[in-house]
Design brief:
7 strands, Alpha/beta_knot_MTases, 7-stranded parallel β-sheet, globular, alpha/beta, 7 helices
């Protein structure tokens, strides 16, 4: 890690975080959960909310893809996603679900407010983001796609969305 000029877990915990949190809404794959932690570490995400049936650390399948990021990234479990959404909304976060719905905004056309705080919400691999959670969101974002498949894996969507928001919020 020294050769890559990476910070330690302790330094990570003390450093300023990006204005982004992640919400995993009933994500069933522990590998996707681990990937979310690893991406969160890479971009200094403030926190991950693990909701509903979403698995929590410690678990070997999460660790397999997180590669230790569960030690650096702050996380909280919520029995249902509505609890996390209410908490984030009252803390001034703009709630953005990643989903394919009517009237969604294409990610490449989305312009976040500079200085704003954002919660990116990712849903279940089969059913997506819960309907009541979608209704509570300020925005629904969609990643444009050109192929024959109708969706991307959550870990891929999460990486694309976080990278896009980090660039637009000038976090680099």
């Amino acid at each position: 890690m020294e050769e890559l000029d990476r910070i330690s877990v302790g330094e990570f915990k003390e450093t300023e975080k990006s204005p982004i949190v992640l919400v995993l809404d009933n994500v069933r794959s522990l590998n996707n959960v681990g990937s979310a932690f690893r991406t969160a570490d890479a971009f200094r995400i403030a926190k991950i909310y693990l909701c509903g049936i979403t698995g929590t650390p410690p678990h070997r399948d999460i660790q397999k893809t997180a590669l230790g990021a569960t030690e650096s990234v702050e996380w909280e479990y919520c029995l249902n996603t509505g609890i996390a959404v209410e908490k984030l909304k009252s803390s001034g976060y703009r709630l953005c679900a990643l989903e394919q719905v009517e009237n969604s905004t294409m990610l490449n056309e989305f312009t976040p407010e500079k200085g704003g705080k954002y919660a990116l919400i990712f849903g279940n691999e089969v059913f997506g983001v819960e309907e009541d959670v979608l209704k509570a969101c300020d925005q629904v974002l969609e990643i444009p796609q050109l192929g024959t498949k109708h969706s991307l894996n959550i870990s891929v969507s999460l990486g694309i969305a976080v990278w896009d928001l980090m660039v637009k919020l000038e976090q680099f």
